[in-house]
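Hi L., both proteins are below.
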Amino acid sequence: MTAYIAQRVLSSIPVILMVAITTFSILHLAPGDAAGVIAGDQATAQEIERIKNSLGLDRPFVDQLGSWIADVIRGDLGRSLFTGHRVTELITDRLEPTVSLTVLGLLLSVCLGVPLGVLAAWKANSWIDRSVMFFSVSGFSLPGFWLGSMLLIVFAVRLGWLPAIGFVSIFDDVPGFLRNALLPAFTVSTSGAAIVARMTRSNMLEVLSEDYIRTARAKGLREITVVGRHALRPASLPVVTVVGLLLAGLLTGVVVVETVFTIPGLGRLAAEAVLRRDIPVIQGVILVIGTVVVIANLLTDIAYAYLDPRIRY
């Protein structure tokens, strides 16, 4: 097991490096000029060239890439072109809302999707099964910005049960954090719960038709024991993969949700940086999100090896 984990960790390092190179290349090859945005519409060509020179944007592409990667290895993501603050500090200040919403959304996706999928498979072709599948199709199809807006109108504006905007740190006030994070987390988790429910149902139906399940039922085991103990674990392997990949979707969904609910997270930071073409901030946010996705895939591989020992060999 240790050798397998070490192998997966080492194989993740080149992936993170490729994410960094691709991010830097795309942003620097894209049309537009950060120096021109900083200088303003009335700036002369000489002023724009002076800004490029001061920021090092007139250096060859390979030199800029090499310097940036060397700085990243040292933990320096550069400075914002507009505020002058370190990108590491900007990301650290905005990290808690995004991480807490993503983790809470992932937990809601699993806690809603897995039981619904198991229930739909157990009651296949019944009204329960059809209801769960209707939820799955609806949850996967509804746009996040529309769902978030509707939840705001109903539960925050009309009923007044939950706050409409803002974020409270979980370290300062746990009940306040839950009240402020419930609507955005549910918005993020809806599509994820729908995917998990469909995948769980499909795998459970396949496992429940196996011979050893019929044998367990013939021996007189209770149905809840057959479904929960003998069928759920084999059916959970593909679901683990979906949950690992779901993290990337939740991170991208948080960008929209943070804008709708006015949450000061990485999503809003990235949106603001894109509008101002603040390249160092955009690079830093994308690199952090990409690294998180790679780590999530790594944890998924380790969970696979734990659930199915054959994978280690």
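That was the first. Here is the second:
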Amino acid sequence: MTRFTLNPQRFFDPDPQIRTIAEELYLQVKDLPIISPHGHVDARIMAENTPFPDPTELILIPDHYIYRMLYSQGIALETLGILPVDGQAVKTDHRKIWRVFADHFYLFAGTPTGAWMNYELACVFEIAEKLNSANAMKIYDQIQDKLKTPEFLPRSLFNRFNMEVLTTTDGAADPLTYHRKIKESGWKGRVIPSFRPDAVINIAAAGWKTELQKLEKTIGKNIESFKDFIMALEQRRSFFKSMGATSTDQGVFSPYTHKLEMNEAESLFKRALQGAASEDDGAAFTAHMLMEMARMSTEDSLVMQIHPGSWRNHNQYIYRRFGTDKGCDIPVQTEYTRNLYELLNAYGNDFRLTLIVFTLDESTYSRELAPLAGHYPAMKLGPAWWFHDSIAGMTRFRERVTETAGIYNTVGFTDDTRAFLSIPARHDLSRRIDANFLARLVARHIIDHDDADRMIKDLTYNLVKKNYKL
């Protein structure tokens, strides 16, 4: 058996000069603490600190990067243990599910998921073989044995991964019970919430009224007007901040921003209360609420993030059967220069605001986003996101924005994941790609070694700490 190992120079350029410089830069930052400023790990994991159940439950079932690929090859989600919304029984034998995964592990070759999984197996679990059909159950048992040990409890792994901050994403009505439990436990790990009001802002969504009722219950007061609604959000933001939050986030289809007159906003809100809001009403209300969220951020200093450009639940069969976040969200073409015009003219020159903008439309990097961030003091560029969080995707991002915006109008790396064990793999890959990008600039004498030494530390640690106020 050939021992499964990861090449220490993986992802670096094959050119010997660039590779040498890249490795020197990477070694300066490979052991720096991990700051995870935006992600979707459940705070309950850290609050309860109980053993992870098994490899399938830990690695496969929470990770839509994995099962969307398997589904694309004709493997039904039911056979992977993904629960339908109607509660109908699915395959529950996690060993058999793991075997299906191992049988198809070859599908992930050349993908970021493959890179992350190889890191998890080799570096986190110290597995000596590459996963395949023949050794699937052997590796499953090796992982399972490790998960039973104190070293693989969530808080132990948090410390082992050298995590300085882990930020979760939490709805406006969330009481943050698990964050409170973490604080009260006396554990020193820093796990903080991020305020995400999407569910109560999307007034055209089928379940909006239910979400509003949750917000009412949380604040202990009926919300009968737009003014009540704004006051409720401001109250919740203040509570989140008291629990350690430094940021907010909104996932929007379009980054369109437009300030409504108060009577217009009130009229839209009243139609929503009556169950009569249209899709156009929802778009107009979201555009106005982006302006309101920017205003609030200038007043309470919470960093504002927007993640536009995803057609959520594109596969309606999967959405109806399994619900949201099941790997069937697809990028759409997105415009920023016109859509952000009102917000940036109202707040983009205000030094109290930090607005971090992400995109799934790579065509906008050099045409719109880099010029905007390279001018407006409030605006920063989020890193290559979701489908572009990859070797080539991160490289394209740096190539297309650096000449116009520099690196200091970007914010470092965010892993944006539900898969806790993939966090060190994702950060390691990012550090390697940034080191390689800077090495290419040094080799071409665009920057010198001193520039690169400073820049790699900033890209890895300083920029994310500064821009997310951590």
